[in-house]
């Protein structure tokens, strides 16, 4: 089968940073489904893992953690899917990724693909939808489906992949959404996603939020980096909650967090699969619920750029776009050529 892999960790402009390779088609066992991959997406985690380092692989390593496709075969213990089912998923950081024609993935982290979306539109969503859903509803315990009406959230990093779907989920929950963006294109994008207010992350966030008539916000979601930690702490209400997906070496003073009795939550969507958590199946359930919301018209895809076919050249271009730091929404690769 066709795949795109790497044997060395190189800058994305190096022609050997990704290689077109042929691999043996795997066979499913246990609770694994074998998915024929139709479309894939690239996320910051892909670029971080591919980033240059003094390491080499003896056999090609396949990255990729977003896909949509069709179930080709199932293991003997599978109960949720059958061959022919269309699915979407983000996969498991500890296993070979989505950048291959056929991939094994545990059924408990796979969802039914939205019927109203194409493969490319669906592939843009799994990792970011899981991240945003878990951040809001599992970590911060925000009430879904309009239950958070009257409350507010500041989303730092609104135009990226996670921020784009997080805005939509926050609006579905009933929250007033303030999000950051600095360029005309990104401001237009976050408003399209449903943001109520847009503030510029290159300027004083505290002053801008308070100019909206809000002394504090109920929740803060940091979806890009921790440079705005102090502003987040200043703006969070007493007994409010902050969630972040960023790993950081920057200082994170906790004195005001303590006096406010505010909570800090880390979100990492791979945790359930990495540690074989007893509630792994929650990701199957939430992806299926997101699919229902999309098909009902409550959420939309965050796809903005489509490349094809899936090969080393186009995957390098997708990584370049993500690494640029100016990507709006998601980039997807479709078809194997």
From TrEMBL:
Record keywords: Cytoplasm, Metal-binding, NADP, Oxidoreductase, RNA-binding, Zinc
- What SUPFAM superfamilies does the record tag this protein with? GroES-like, NAD(P)-binding Rossmann-fold domains
Which compartments does it reside in? Cytoplasm
Q: Which InterPro entries does the entry mention? A: ADH-like_N (IPR013154), ADH_Zn_typ-1 (IPR014182), ER (IPR020843), GroES-like_sf (IPR011032), NAD(P)-bd_dom_sf (IPR036291), Quin_OxRdtase/zeta-crystal_CS (IPR002364), Zinc-ADH_QOR/CCCR (IPR051603)
What positions does the domain Enoyl reductase (ER) occupy?
A: 13-333
What GO molecular function annotations does the UniProt record carry, in alphabetical order?
oxidoreductase activity; RNA binding; zinc ion binding
PROSITE patterns membership: QOR_ZETA_CRYSTAL
Write out the GO cellular component annotations: cytoplasm
Pfam families linked: ADH_N (PF08240), ADH_zinc_N_2 (PF13602)
The keyword Ribonucleoprotein appears for this protein: no
Self-association state and partner proteins as the record states:
Homotetramer.
Q: Which PANTHER family match?
A: QUINONE OXIDOREDUCTASE
Family recorded in the similarity comment: Belongs to the zinc-containing alcohol dehydrogenase family. Quinone oxidoreductase subfamily.
Protein name per its UniProtKB record: Zinc-type alcohol dehydrogenase-like protein
| Species per Swiss-Prot/TrEMBL record | Pseudovibrio exalbescens
């Amino acid at each position: 089968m066709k795949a795109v892999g790497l044997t060395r960790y190189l800058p994305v402009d190096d022609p050997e940073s990704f290689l077109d390779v042929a691999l043996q088609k795997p066979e499913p066992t246990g609770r694994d489904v074998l998915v024929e991959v139709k479309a894939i997406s690239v996320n910051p985690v892909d670029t971080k893992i591919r980033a240059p380092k003094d390491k080499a692989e003896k056999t090609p390593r396949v990255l990729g953690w977003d896909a949509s496709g069709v179930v080709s075969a199932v293991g003997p213990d599978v109960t949720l899917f059958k061959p022919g089912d269309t699915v979407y998923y983000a996969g498991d950081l500890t296993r070979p990724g989505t950048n291959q024609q056929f991939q094994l993935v545990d059924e408990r982290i796979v969802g039914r693909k939205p019927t109203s979306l194409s493969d490319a539109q669906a592939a843009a969503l799994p990792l970011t939808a899981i991240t945003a859903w878990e951040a809001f509803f599992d970590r911060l315990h925000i009430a879904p489906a309009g239950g958070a009406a009257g409350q507010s959230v500041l989303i730092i990093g609104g135009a990226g992949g996670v921020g784009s779907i997080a805005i939509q989920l926050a609006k579905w929950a009933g929250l007033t959404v303030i999000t950051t963006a600095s360029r005309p294109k990104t401001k237009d994008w976050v408003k399209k996603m449903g943001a109520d207010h847009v503030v510029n992350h290159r300027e004083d966030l505290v002053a801008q939020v308070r100019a909206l008539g809000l002394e504090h916000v109920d929740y803060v979601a940091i979806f890009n980096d921790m440079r705005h930690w102090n502003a987040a702490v200043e703006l969070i209400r007493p007994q409010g909650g902050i969630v972040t997906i960023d790993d950081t070496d920057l200082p994170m003073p906790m004195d005001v967090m303590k006096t406010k009795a505010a909570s800090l939550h880390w979100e990492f969507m791979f945790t359930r699969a990495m540690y074989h958590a007893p509630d792994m199946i929650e990701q199957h359930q939430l992806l299926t619920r997101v699919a229902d919301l999309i098909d009902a018209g409550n959420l939309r895809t965050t796809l903005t750029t489509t490349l094809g076919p899936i090969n080393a050249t186009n995957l390098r271009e997708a990584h370049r776009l993500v690494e640029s730091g100016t990507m709006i929404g998601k980039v997807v690769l479709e078809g194997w050529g």
